[in-house]
Amino acid sequence: MSEFLAYFQYPFVQRAMIVGVLIALCSSLLGVTLVLKRFSFIGDGLSHVAFGAMAVAGVLGLTNTMVVVLPVTVLCAVLLLRVGGRAQIKGDASLAMLSVGALGVGYLLMNLFSSSGNVSGDVCTTLFGSTSILTLSDFDVWLCVILSFVVIGVFVLFYNKIFAVTFDENFAQATGIRANAYNLMIAVITAVIIVLAMNLVGSLLISALVIFPALSAMRVFRSFRSVVVCSAVLSVLCALSGLVLSVVFSTPVGSTVVAADIIVFAVFSLLGKLKK
Fold this sequence. Notes:
By secondary structure, this protein is an all-alpha fold. It has helices spanning 2-6, 11-36, 40-59, 66-82, 91-113, 119-128, 138-157, 159-167, 169-174, 179-201, 206-220, 224-249, 253-275. The chain is 81% helix and 0% strand.
């Protein structure tokens, strides 16, 4: 036990825990809304965009890829909502094109211009996550803390509006709520969360971080508030347990966190059936 607790004395583990908890918390808050609005695919699509942007940042030789990845991902989220409805290629088709295109171009750029001798390893690390979260700098941690508190603050401040837009967008518009503006806000916040979560689970596994806690909570609870609270608790616990297990057993962080989410989903699905 003493050897196990000794891991938490290291600053890099403490930084990883802080970032992991904040990312898991933010992902779970927006995850409930995305699942109920059937916007879950946005997280997956934007994660591929973030991968492409990260590849471009790597080609440019930027030490801080966040400078490119965050604005590009947010811009794509805005364009998908603003332009997607009026474009000739609509909805999920435009998202699919952007997602696959960014993934393919990003991988091509990494192969053509990468200075690393292990391109496959770099790609695997970016897509599926690795122990890179254990090498976070103080800047990365503070940026995550600031953006996470912004996301949480926006969600709490506009909770009632988000609730109304989530369940009945037409009724929300009839009562004077600017549904399009709040949908745009949700998309932007989702893009921010996607970029932050890449350090934890990788770009291909981000959707699991967003979706699984929400679906697990919905197996047992029915009210929106209860689902949000339960989803937040489950997401944080799974992130912490995944991080601890990955450090102790030297497993990939992203895959370990997702495995924890899957186990919790299975347990809550069983509890939901027993509850009936």
